[in-house]
Design a protein that fits this description.
Length: about 325
Amino acid sequence: MPPSTPPPPTVSNPLRILVLTTSPSTPLPPLLQGSDLPIQTPYYTATIPIWHDTISSLAEWSEEWSAPEAGEVIQSIGAWIVVVRKPSSADNRGEAGGGRERGSSVEHLRNTLSAIHRLLSHHQSTSGNYTPLETEPPLLLAIGMPQPLRPLLPITPEEWEDLCRECGGWEWIDGEATGKNEFGENVGRERLKEALEANEWDGGGGGIFNANDIDTEELESELGLLDDGSPTPRGIIDVRSDFAGMHEAILGQSEDVANDDDPGGGGDIQVEELEGMMLKMQAIKEKGAGMPEDERKRFAAKAVNEVMRSVKSFD
């Protein structure tokens, strides 16, 4: 009789999800409507608490959350999710008037995302005992929900993605989209679920792992990143150099932690982060298996970029 597979570990003290809207009437995706979100994957199970807040005045909200005492709260947040109705005006003239919901403009969305990014950067650079981004950066998602007013702005998914990325690395999710995009990636509610499941919710961990155990050549081969002399297809990001840099950075950090004899326990935090990055590298390999080559490279480009953000957070 084959040995039974042990159940995945449970995250006992997870980080929180903070859902932000600019109007109380903004609809929420079903996953975010409750007070917690149960997650079960082959790698872990967790019940993630969900906090909700409405930004009535961006200036006042930013000032309140910039206070030193807000640092402990920010430290406990693993995902910032801004939910808005898809903007119906290109500027703030449509805001809270003419039948439009507050925050229904592109400019207001841009300002909100940028303000939150500045807030996180502010707390990261604040001197003292608290630096909330000393570990892995939080998940940043902007979700566009149905807008009853017409006409909607003719903005493509790529333009939304660029706008959000420019505001501090946010990911845009179309709350009305279903199925997969042209690259075979999940969109809409399924992408939201996927992003939340892939996020790092736990700060705990075990011992130091050895980054040399990561078989990068095998991983590159399975993801189609090895340089075999063939041209990179048009529209696909070549991430070979980023991938090599990612492994070198993780290897360097692993050696630093292994040599750290700081009695203050600062190395414990890095150990947990490095273990999380190793798991993500393994997840890249497993998720990429079986994908067509072009799709696999696009997936690898996005995944490697996310892990590189984690590596850079050590600096």
